[in-house]
Design goal:
globular
């Protein structure tokens, strides 16, 4: 396998093209995904145990009563950081701020629709429904390319 890297100007968009055999397609997609998204992890606690959760497994992050909760498909974890710190950690991933207390992973969104008072209702792929405050709807549309 040959690997070619070409340096481009900072103003140009970076592109990753992979030419592979069908047998290697899935593995190379996984590698490319980790390269593009990174395999960033967030340290969490649950039941007095500490876990390292990959950000691409996180559905959303929410603060409730000054406690930060990390929601995955089947589990909820806790972390001591503040929401702005979690937002910095997630800045390279596909998260957006949905309210003053919530970050949502756009890759886990199944569908969305306008709601009352300019807000949006989001249905996650696990069928959980979340609300995007009207202040952050523009950010959602930008991240989703709308």
């Amino acid at each position: 396998m040959n690997i070619n890297i070409h340096i481009i100007e900072d103003s140009k968009e970076e592109i990753l093209d992979i030419f592979c055999h069908e047998a290697n397609k899935e593995r190379l997609q996984e590698i490319a995904k980790e390269l593009v998204e990174g395999n960033q992890k967030i340290t969490c606690k649950k039941d007095d145990k500490t876990y390292q959760i990959r950000l691409d497994e996180v559905f959303y992050i929410e603060t409730v009563d000054e406690r930060l909760f990390i929601y995955c498909e089947d589990d909820v974890y806790e972390n001591r950081m503040r929401l702005y710190e979690a937002e910095q950690l997630c800045s390279g991933a596909d998260f957006f701020k949905a309210s003053k207390s919530m970050l949502i992973n756009i890759k886990k969104i199944e569908n969305m629709k306008p709601s009352l008072s300019g807000r949006f209702e989001i249905t996650m792929i696990n069928k959980e429904k979340l609300i995007v405050s009207r202040k952050y709807v523009a950010d959602l549309k930008e991240k989703m390319g709308l």
